[in-house]
Amino acid sequence: MGLTLVIATVRSEPFPAGDDLLLCVAAGIFGGIGITGLYRGLAVGRMGIVAPITGVLAAIIPVIGGIVLQGWPSQLVLLGIVVAIVAVVLVSRVADEGGGRAGLREALVAGTAIGLFGIVISQISDGFVFSSLTVIRGVQVVLVTLVVLLSRSAWRLPRSTFKLVLAVGVLDMMGNAFYLLGVQSGALAIAAVLSSLYPVTTVILAAIVLRERVTRDHTIGIGLAAAAIALIGLGSA
User: Fold this and answer.
1) CA angle, corner 23, sides to 20 and 26, nearest 5?
2) How far is CA 31 from CA 36, 112, 150, in A?
3) Is 12 exposed, middle or buried (0-12, 13-18, 19+ CB in 10 A)?
4) Relative orientation angle of helices 216-236 and 75-92, to the nearest 10 degrees
5) 3-state DSSP call for residue 21?
6) What CA–CA distance (Å, rounded) separates 143 from 179?
């Protein structure tokens, strides 16, 4: 939050007010619920259920919102969106030999909340980027603090993980900033579906850095993701 405030000050961005402030508060609530639900689902449930359901809902809901708010995209873009969603499903699949539907409820909540976050943040007026993210982060800090206090959860981080958590926070902030810039300069449906391809990067980095095995589904998903990006690019030209 401090970093976004500094950047907003340097860029001389005005502080959100009126409807933009309300949108920031709503985005902060949806984002906080979404991330909390995702982490909770991964902790108590099956990754093979939580990851794909969350990813698909987080992609489909903003796409539907973009079509409702801005109209249908071109046929090439629409085809690219469908291919991208299939890619998200394949890349999000993991080896999961457990039974039952543990984590299903959390995944549905997380995917829906993250999808709504994408729609709400797209409605913020142009020019409000890092100042909006400052408000959003502030709301999320309050929300998480309340959850920790009410649930009496442990909150102290081990020193060994502090730098990693800080890095994750900075990268997440950058992702939200670029998404906000994307929806302010283009179509919501396109920005939403392209940003939903983040599992592709995760799989590729895991293979390179952690030497994790890339499955056949992952390989097909990565190929489809590349095809989706090409289709959306051609259809948007």
Assistant:
1) 155
2) 8, 10, 19
3) exposed
4) 160
5) helix
6) 22
DSSP structure class, residue 224? H
N-to-C CA span, the chain = 36
**DSSP reduced 3-state for 210:** coil
CB atoms within 10 A of CB 161: 10
Question: What is the token pair recorded at 197?
Answer: 């391809």
DSSP state letter for 127:
T
Question: Residues 76-87: what's their mean pLDDT?
Answer: 89
Give Cβ neighbours of residue 189 (< 8 Å, ≥ 6 apart): 62, 63, 65, 66, 67, 70, 73, 77, 81
Report the pLDDT value the prediction gives residue 135, as an integer from 0 to 100.
Answer: 93
Q: What is the pLDDT of residues 168-181, one digit of tens each?
A: 888 888 888 888 88
Query: What is the distance between the alpha carbons of residues 62 and 186, in angstroms, rounded to a whole number?
Result: 13
Q: Alpha-carbon distance 116 to 136, whole Å?
A: 14
Using CA atoms, how far apart are residues 69 and 10, in angstroms rounded to an integer? 32
Residues 6+ apart with CB under 8 A from 170: 3
Distance CA 203, CA 35 (A): 20
